[in-house]
Amino acid sequence: MSLDILFIHPNASKKIYQGLSNDHSAIEPPIWAGMLANHCRNKNFNVQILDCEVEKLDYLTSVQEIIKIKPRIACFVVYGQQPSASSQNMEGAIATSEELKLSDPEIKILFVGGHVSALPNETLTNEKSIDFIALNEGVYAISNLLKVENLNDEKYLNKVKGIGFRNKDNQIVINESEIIVPKKLLDIDLPGIAWDLLPSLKKYRTAGWHSWSNNSDKQPFAALYTSLGCPYTCSFCMINIINRTDSSENISSQDSNIFRWWSPEFIIKQFDYFAEQGVKNIKIADELFVLNPNHFMKICDMIIERKYNFNIWAYSRIDTCKPEYLDKLKKAGVNWLGLGIENPSSVIRKEVHKDAFKNIKIIDIIDSIRNAGINVAANYIFGLPEETKESLEFTYNFAEETNTEMVNFYSAMAYPGSPLYLESKKKNIILPKTYSGYSQHSYDTQNLPSANLSASEILAFRDKAWNKYHTNSKYLKLLESKFGMNAINNLKATTKIKLKRKLLGD
Question: CATH code at 472?
Fold first, then answer.
């Protein structure tokens, strides 16, 4: 039987993460590739998945595998499980698709994901190797396209909702948008991840800090969504751009802040599968897991009832993480909560529409989480629009004083699909010239300047702050007391890796 579609998770890990890619960055299952594959399979199409990252395939060997499989459509899935990942994953996707188009032009190339949904016209204009793009999340668009027998016949292509392509006159055609999968149909039309089409979960690995105590415990690793989207409108985030049903040029993620979730009864089946496979480390990739208690508390109840022994990492906002939730989260195995603090100053957060918790003492929430036995991974962003040298120092000092079990320091970026991207374009601010430039860890990363500081000043501060935090004695004592010397040794191996930065003259 010929293959209708091959879903491809591209690989550009060395360019995106530099030296961290060897042993220190996570290798996460391609959730969206797995969900799209399952959707199409349920529509009776013949599908496969090729995870180039986990199989350690470079561009040339990826193409060799694709040609060997010979799909009708090669679909590059350029989603990501954090805001930057879609644009940075374009790096490997484009390099591979260009080589594929040269090697076998008969295979049609389709792209789906946040970046192409944010910039459909620009993507088709700049990237000649791409035959089709799927707009928004692409679920129905892809199965619509697969129904077309002749993929060169514009008469039929023009009728396919939710796609974009170039016609025979080389003009870009963006068809009427398709709907996103409604909440009531998530269990049916996005019925989980096609785990059987992916490599063994033993090949995937979690982030080092998620398994501080024992580096060998990083594998196997699984990840899943229990919900999609986010009801909030933070200016630096583009996660909601895949919800768009309007392909106008100036639409941002703020215009499509939709939140949907699968039923707890459906989700628990995924956890059952993980338990059967001997998986302990699990990432709940939801933008906000701790948001709707009728959803996440029921999932916790079911996990507790089954007496599973998971090590779960999930995300919350400061203002959604209520003390009354914490004991149950801990009992369910949620040992890590990622908190989007971004900046301790409500004034700076207000500039990016994240000031809802201005009257909440951040430290009190962190203390309540840790008192419940849950570790905190605190996320901070340096270089938001009104940032000053003094506010950078204030944020770092706050992080050091708080001394959470893990911190992530980011530089503010203009991710395509975010309001900050549109604002930066209007102001003619320098944006990344490459896809890898959207990566926080790449050589050519191009973060944003603030009103008071240059991009290079902010990046230099971020890199120094990261190293300073993870080598200070107070933090090391915390790590040793909670996780032992293995954690210290694993951390030291990570801090020895110096990221080279073009912006800093490396």
Answer: 3.80.30.20
Instruction: Find the angle CA(258)-CA(264)-CA(269) to the nearest 5 degrees.
Output: 120
> Which of 118-127, 359-368, 492-501 has the highest mean predicted lDDT (pLDDT)?
118-127
CA distance 206 to 313: 10
Q: Do residue 270 and residue 348 come from a single domain? A: yes
Residues 372 and 461 grouped into a single domain? yes
pLDDT band at residue 215 under the 50/70/90 scheme? low
Look up the pTM and report it: 0.95
**Judgement on whether residues 155 and 113 belong to the same structural domain of the protein:** yes
Tell me how far apart the alpha carbons of residues 327 and 70 are, in angstroms, rounded to a whole number: 51
pLDDT in tens, 463-476: 999 999 999 999 99
Neighbours of 128 (CB within 10 A): 12
Burial level of 233, CB count in 10 A (0-12/13-18/19+)? middle
Domain count, the chain: 2
- Is 196 among the domain residues? no
**Eight-state DSSP code of residue 22:** T
Distance CA 228, CA 183 (A): 9
Closest CA to 468 of 370, 383, 393, 371: 393
CATH code where residue 115 lies: 3.40.50
Q: Where are the alpha helices (DSSP H) in 377-484?
A: 389-402, 419-426, 455-469, 473-483
- Pair type for strands 47-51 and 5-9: parallel
Residues 109 and 213 in one domain: no
Burial of 486 (C-beta count, 10 Å sphere; 0-12/13-18/19+): middle
Instruction: Kindly state the tokens that stand for 68.
Output: 């060997």
- Residue pair 22/216 in contact (Cβ under 8 Å)? The answer is no
For residue 134, tell me if it sits in a domain. yes
Question: In sequence order, what DSSP letters do the residues of 369-408 get, joined into one string?
Answer: HHHTT-EEEEEEEE--TT--HHHHHHHHHHHHHHT-SEEE
**Same domain? 402 vs 486:** yes
Note whether 12 and 148 are same-domain residues.
yes
Tell me what percent of the chain is helix, strand and coil, each rounded to the nearest 5: 45, 15, 40
The per-residue pLDDT for range 101-153, each reduced to its tens digit, is: 999 999 999 999 999 999 999 999 999 999 999 999 999 999 999 999 999 99
Residue 325 structural domain: 207-226+262-412+453-498
pLDDT at 187 over 90: yes
Instruction: With beta carbons less than 8 A apart as the criterion, state whether 412 and 373 touch.
Output: no
Rounded distance between C-alpha atoms, residue 111 and residue 98, angstroms: 12
Residue 145 and residue 212 in one domain: no
- The reply to whether 233 falls in a domain is no
Measure CA 103 to chain center.
30
Residue 463's region, left for phi above 0, alpha for psi from -120 to 50, else beta, is alpha
Cβ neighbors of 391 (< 8 A, separation 6 or more) are: 343, 345, 348
Structural domain includes residue 25: yes
